[in-house]
Task: inverse folding
């Protein structure tokens, strides 16, 4: 880009509005093309003559700013057609660059100045080109945004708005000069992903007075975004909106937000005002609204925002609770795929925790086209990793390195499941979409992770020498110590290391890196041998003898006698009363471990359990997203007393992957679903199921019906896709493109 990064010469006491007037070069005919390339330190909104240049919000999002600052390209030809002059304005808010980040307090970790950099290139009918760039000729002034923060909310004063901002020749006299910032333009890079946009609008399902006399609004769905409305009222009067995910004792349940204020304030001008706080976002279902004139409640609506991802996968079955569970997974994906995969969207955190996406990626890649979205995030992961000698941090972007030391955590190093995202996420994308580029781009990151972990192994060859989150959030762990799980952390970590080494060996072979393939294959074999020597007794008992260790040993291919391990796993599940007894590491895989060892009935009993802890308990409690804890809300309607409690966390929703493959019956046999396994396995009293997936080759649809012991399966495969139909009690059948029906 030719522009310079500019900032106001002094702080303005509000979000700065950058401005320049442009006179189009005359004598060259009509404008035939116009392109705006733009980025910012902070989040920006660009307008030409007051009209937004695009649909995006919260751009340029949050990347690892030290290494990558993304820019957007907008086609603005239509906004310049027929004009002799125009005004380009850019409003810049704090966003992730200068706002609060993390759960330990602090802000402005990336810099204390907001800025914008832009190029506007205009092409005329005769081929003449005019270029406008950000430089010292621009000005900047105070805006109507008096305060903005992602955690705390936004304050807008409509009395400060002026039509002059967007009018040619109308620059307000109080606008000040700008100066050029010392900025490394080499970090600028185009988006790989798509930007954040408005995705949906919900209207209230209920408005009422709380026991304390507060006006509460229920939108019927836990969502991520903001509330907008139109109002007319006395100049200077204030409307305040507080947000929360749940109610407790009839009032907003705000304690889980910790110190995030999640409050927007709007000051009326005395005329007709419209408010939309686009420089913050909240995770909420409920809102407490104060000071809004009664007629304006008819205009209140919630705007859902997230990265602009195309929906690809669908699922439904005869059990309404399972359908709601699946809907909860979808909504948690939406809410936490806001520019990067986050852990939660509401409290003072909202970080790109690597462990969450490591286990959830298969579910997400079925539900949405996540290829570009996760490739963008993986580019940040690789950048952070290169700067840290191969260490994959807990979160990407790694803002934790700027926070005060957390006493519970030792100095950071590679951590099982979390750091394994470097290997597991690219592998998931390869399996889902069949694009070798993701493996080629991430290959150095994958190998660096495995090689670093090799240096952390004990002399016995197992990974038991450094900090581990382990089977995080085991339901039997104390509420204030979620890492205190039943599963031995060395067992969990060594299993994860074996899986990463195995995958990396396969990737090396696929890419023709024969020496590397041998190296990583050897590491995987050694890890497996060490696992069995150190953790598996002669009778097949695995150290700590709990559901998670058998689950990981089975699914990650670590034991020879799978039948015995499967029997012990099924016994432990029965001993738990078919309630969840696994945490973060075991939960995504336990149904697969049971299914592959012939315990499908046990898997269904576990899936369909309604008592806490279970997947369906939150559904029975009215959840519309996936909870962080199995008991984020207790049966009496009170919130879990632990400090860490979120009602929108997708990690435990990784069960959707099993639902898609085993109930829905769609699984890839070859990367990108060029060859597909159609293998629905009814159980648990289900009488019908269906799933559909838009692949790179076209749409795959599977539906089945169970009547009086007769199973009828209908399959549609697109051109270029072959399949294997696997049904209970009959030989597998080859399928070609087209429509098929089978009965058993």
Result:
């Amino acid at each position: 880009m030719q522009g310079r990064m500019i900032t106001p010469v002094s702080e303005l006491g509000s979000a700065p509005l950058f401005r320049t007037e442009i006179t189009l070069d005359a004598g060259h005919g009509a404008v035939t093309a116009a392109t705006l390339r733009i980025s910012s330190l902070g989040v920006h909104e660009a307008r030409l003559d007051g009209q937004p240049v695009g649909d995006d919000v919260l751009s340029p999002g949050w990347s690892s700013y030290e290494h990558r600052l993304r820019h957007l390209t907008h086609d603005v030809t239509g906004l310049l057609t027929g004009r002799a002059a125009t005004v380009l304005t850019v409003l810049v808010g704090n966003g992730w660059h200068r706002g609060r980040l993390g759960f330990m307090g602090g802000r402005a970790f990336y810099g204390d100045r907001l800025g914008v950099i832009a190029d506007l290139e205009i092409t005329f009918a005769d081929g003449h080109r005019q270029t406008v760039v950000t430089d010292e000729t621009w000005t900047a002034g105070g805006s109507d945004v008096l305060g903005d923060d992602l955690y705390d909310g936004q304050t807008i004063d409509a009395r400060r708005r002026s039509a002059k901002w967007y009018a040619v020749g109308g620059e307000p006299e109080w606008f000040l000069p700008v100066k050029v910032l010392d900025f490394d333009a080499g970090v600028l890079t185009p988006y790989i992903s798509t930007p954040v946009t408005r995705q949906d609008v919900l209207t209230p399902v209920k408005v009422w007075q709380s026991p304390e006399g507060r006006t509460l609004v229920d939108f019927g769905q836990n969502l991520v975004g903001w509330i907008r409305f139109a109002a007319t009222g006395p100049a200077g009067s204030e409307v305040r909106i507080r947000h929360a995910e749940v109610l407790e004792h009839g009032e907003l349940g705000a304690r889980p937000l910790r110190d995030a204020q999640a409050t927007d304030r709007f000051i009326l001008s005395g005329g007709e005002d419209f408010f939309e706080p686009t420089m913050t976002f909240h995770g909420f279902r409920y809102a407490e609204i104060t000071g809004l004139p009664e007629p304006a409640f008819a205009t209140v609506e919630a705007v859902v925002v997230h990265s602009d991802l195309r929906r690809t996968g669908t699922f439904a079955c005869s059990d309404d609770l399972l359908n709601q569970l699946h809907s909860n997974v979808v909504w948690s994906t939406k809410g936490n795929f806001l520019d990067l995969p986050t852990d939660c969207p509401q409290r003072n955190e909202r970080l790109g925790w690597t462990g969450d996406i490591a286990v959830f990626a298969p579910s997400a890649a079925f539900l949405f086209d996540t290829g570009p979205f996760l490739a963008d995030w993986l580019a940040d992961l690789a950048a952070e990793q290169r700067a840290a000698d191969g260490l994959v941090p807990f979160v990407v972007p790694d803002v934790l390195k700027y926070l005060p030391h957390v006493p519970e955590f030792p100095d950071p190093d590679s951590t099982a499941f979390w750091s394994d995202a470097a290997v597991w996420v690219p592998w998931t994308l390869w399996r889902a979409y069949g694009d070798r580029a993701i493996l080629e781009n991430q290959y150095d990151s994958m190998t660096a992770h495995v090689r670093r972990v090799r240096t952390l192994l004990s002399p016995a060859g197992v990974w038991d020498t450094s900090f581990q989150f382990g089977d995080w959030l085991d339901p039997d762990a104390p509420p204030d110590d979620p890492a205190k799980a039943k599963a031995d952390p060395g067992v969990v970590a060594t299993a994860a290391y074996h899986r990463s080494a195995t995958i990396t060996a396969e990737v090396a072979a696929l890419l023709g890196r024969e020496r590397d393939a041998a190296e990583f294959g050897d590491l995987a074999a050694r890890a497996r041998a060490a696992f069995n020597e150190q953790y598996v007794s002669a009778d097949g008992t695995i150290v700590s003898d709990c559901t998670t260790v058998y689950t990981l040993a089975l699914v990650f291919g670590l034991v020879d006698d799978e039948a015995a391990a499967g029997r012990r796993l099924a016994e432990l599940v029965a001993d738990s009363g078919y309630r969840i007894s696994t945490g973060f590491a075991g939960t995504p895989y336990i149904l697969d471990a049971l299914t592959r060892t012939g315990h499908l009935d046990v898997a269904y009993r576990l899936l369909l359990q309604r008592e806490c802890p279970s997947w369906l308990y939150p559904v029975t409690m009215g959840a519309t997203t996936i909870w962080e804890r199995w008991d984020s809300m207790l049966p009496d309607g009170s919130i879990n007393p632990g400090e860490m409690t979120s009602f929108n966390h997708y990690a435990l929703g990784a069960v959707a992957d099993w639902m898609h493959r085993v109930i829905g019956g769609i699984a890839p046999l070859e990367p990108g679903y060029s060859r597909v396994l159609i293998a629905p396995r009814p159980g648990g009293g289900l009488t019908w199921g269906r799933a559909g997936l838009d692949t790179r080759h076209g749409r795959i649809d599977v539906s089945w019906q169970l009547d009086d012991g007769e199973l009828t399966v209908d399959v549609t495969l697109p051109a270029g896709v072959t399949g294997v139909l696997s049904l209970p009690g009959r030989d597998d059948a080859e399928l070609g493109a087209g429509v098929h029906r089978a009965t058993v």
Notes: The chain has a mean pLDDT of 97. The chain is about 25% helix and 25% strand.
